[in-house]
Amino acid sequence: MERGGFRGRGSAFGGDGRGRGRNYGQSQQQEQYHQQGRGRSQGRTQGHVGPSQGGRGGAEGPRSGGYYGGRGGGGRGGGEGRGYWGPPAPGQPHSQRSTAPVMRPDSGSTNAVRSLRLRTNHFLVKYNQESIIRHYNVDVKQEVPSKPGQRVKLPKSILSKIRNKLSSDDPIRFPLSMTAYDGEKSIFSAVALPTGKFKVEFSHGESMRTRSFIVTLQLANEIKLCKLNDYLSGTSTSIPRDILQPLDVVMKENPTRKMISFRGTFHSPTSYPKDSIGRGITASKGVKHRLKLSSQGLALCLDYSVLPFWEKIPVIDFLEKQIRGFDVNNFKRFMRDVENNLKGLKVNVTHRATDQVFKISGLTKDITQNISFPLEDPNGVIPPRDVRLVDYFMEKYSKDIVCKNIPCLNLGKSSGRNYVPMEFCVIAGGQRCKKELLDKYQDKKLKEKSLVRPKDRLNTILDMIQDGNGPRGGDISKNFGIEVDTNMTTVTARVIKPPELKLRTQNGNFMKVTVDGEKCHWNLVRKYVVEGKQILRWGLLDLSSYDRDELDADNFIPKLLRRCNDLGIDMAEPVSYRRASMNLLYNVDGLQQMLKGINEESNEIGRGDLEILVCVMPREDPGYNNLKWISEKQVGIVTQSCLSTNANKANDQFLANLALKINAKNGGSNVELMNLLPRIRGNGHVMFIGADVNHPGSWNSTSPSIAAVVSTVNWPAANRYIARIQPQDHRAERILNFGHMCLELVDTYAQLNQTRPEKIIIFRDGVSENQFDMVLEEELGDLKRKFKALNYSPTITVIVAQKRHLTRLFPENDMDGGSTGNVPPGTVVDTKINRDMKTDFYLSSHYGNIGTSKPAHYHALWDEHNFTRDELQELCYSLCFTCAQCTKPVSVVPPVWYADRAAYRGRLYHDAIELRKSSSSSSSSASAEASEATSSAVASFDEQLYRLHPNVENSMFFL
């Protein structure tokens, strides 16, 4: 519950290149921080500039001062070497650096318990290699600007309508079916278009005056699809994004015209009764698709997601569904609820013919029958006269307003006025409802529609690929010479063996644990954790007092103690037990004083600071943010939260999970791998690092993004992590101080182990393929520079772990899917839907009990440890079994899992700081400190506000 319960959820020092050739020795090492490229033949060639007898192992890369992994030649196998990144040539900016992917280190994977046939949601795309796509830059501006000397940015909806009007005015020269528009500055065409300036007269709505726009078209490029073959055949290692972009726009053109676009997902404009989840909200299935380059060629990857949308219904009907007991005849009673529910929503009007969308800015102060306004003659002949709104609607639109005793909606922008009676307004389609607004019933219904079994998802995807509104519908893609196969790609996957685990027996010996064959779970019956930390000083803060779900402490405490002791965690009676209501979480002074008092009580009774505070709450509440920030930043107490309903039930599984978290947060070890990890076995210390960035919601345009870096501090167990959190620029994905954050973690590792790690393996979360260069050049480069300044040179591997992709895996044989129909844990796919030249693979490491499993997609961007594919896959799969909070493998490696949680914890801190800033009515010293800090530093994202108390910062507080 700790996270999910309260969620609203330079230079890279390029040096030697290595290729494999026969009978060639090593040359002098040219840079301490070398990056290795290896072919698939015998012998080695290292550090040579230019071709050699063995091949271009160290050939100089184009536009780069570093070395570029070439192709091994002359030796057996003659395979491709790894590409790597060097520093730019003098005076060359980083953006022009030559990069290349890490090549596959061997011919293929061999480890497998068994193989199975899968279907994937990749649909092969055939294209005419002779086709040319013409790219035109398009610029649209008003002929007469609304404000002299100032150009107003036009919204995408208007730009699209202007483009359509241009085509309808001259369909011969501007054929709509032969063009695709990205909605902003690019039009792609299958035929030649005229260039120059063109006047388009456009009226947006019947009551608006006709406006004239000047559309300027210029030919920017002619894109030849035959260049795709260079990449697909391996001739070129540079991803042809200049071709993929227009193809992507072409594939999105048809759904853009016929469906509602929401952040790259396309939803039906019609809501269906079967999709309703209550209160005017519908669960809409949105099509998501993306073009991917793989070893089988170009493919369209298509999936869907389910999001809550407001139903397109009349505003008054909407209010009746949203507000319990709403009565339009007793409107005044519900005024505040009406304003809260309607403000900010978009509506269409029904009293005139227009598809224009208006945003509700508020309600009128007067009721409809009392509203009047000055009506001006547009020709200026008749002087202005006051007219009643009800009379105006009858004279202008022949509409008799029925609900005269309620306010109107104000649809005007800023301070403008545009009063429209509610009965003539309909909630506009395509508006997403925030999940925070869903009640428990709606949330449950949404999950039921989202988390469908694999067979149901597969059938829905097959229906969507056939849909005439989808990416292959209509004639647009065909006009560009593109055809999409409607059959899913089939692949042969391997299931790799799970690792053997280590637990402890009651007599203190270690025991080997073999996991369950189907689910890969293990149980803790008559087993101890590997290292149970003794807990002598802990407290219980019961925030459920005076609530209907009040905690039964006499039942909960002894059961928790018994379960902890059964797991080998010696837990004494609590030194402090406090009761309070949830209101305490919003009393900054009171909460801080209570936490300090609990700590003082621990020092008096237990002669030391509190080791952990168990906080029991009756419900999920935003006040949780305050609890975490105050306890972890101000007071220095590690907390563990749970719900009173679960605590009162106190079933064995709940108590075991709670005990595992408590032990991990106190520095204990729950489970370890029996054998050391591949390739990094040996005497040298190894550190695993995870990095992620949490971004604010799309509606927030000012809050900082939160970066988190976590790392292991124990080897060889490698299951205890610490974290560092910092704010950075709004929506910046690059971790700005990555080198400094990692160096701080290395220093902490050295303090705890009296040595620095010799090997570092970094897992980066949350970046897409077009950001891989940024990870290597900016983040890794920053890290290398920091290390070099200290004359510290560990070997480094960088792996990106992606979960936000569209690929799904479906067993072809029902028997292979087990009881849930999902692929079994340990399923690996590294052929056909992957790129042959890259070290990437899909790994489904967890048991998919609910819905359809999504595999993690791992990319090795940088590798100084020379992992084989088998070793990389075994490494990632084994790590997934070491998560501290459960007895099953998780869906992505723990460094990424924990980095995500730590970044989210930073988001909670920010929200707590903002809450204090908005309600800084307290006058205590602590409150004044926080208030001053927030008012002066939040805008500049002060790192000190996120720096944790020394008692907390080196614990796994983020679990």
TrEMBL record:
Give the UniProt keywords, A-Z. Answer: Repressor, Ribonucleoprotein, RNA-binding, RNA-mediated gene silencing, Translation regulation
| Amino acid composition bias (Gly residues), ranges on this chain | 7-16, 52-84
Annotated stretches, region: Disordered: 1-113
Residue ranges occupied by any Piwi domain in the UniProt entry: 612-911
Q: Which SUPFAM superfamilies match?
A: PAZ domain, Ribonuclease H-like
GO cellular component labels: ribonucleoprotein complex
Q: Which GO terms describe its molecular function?
A: RNA binding
> Domain PAZ: where?
314-429
Q: Where is the composition biased (Low complexity)?
A: 26-51
Q: Which Pfam families match?
A: ArgoL2, ArgoN, PAZ, Piwi
CDD domains recorded = PAZ_argonaute_like (cd02846), Piwi_ago-like (cd04657)
A GO biological process held by the record: regulation of translation
Q: What PANTHER family does the annotation carry?
A: EUKARYOTIC TRANSLATION INITIATION FACTOR 2C
Instruction: Write out the similarity annotation.
Output: Belongs to the argonaute family. Ago subfamily.
Name of the protein: Protein argonaute 2-like
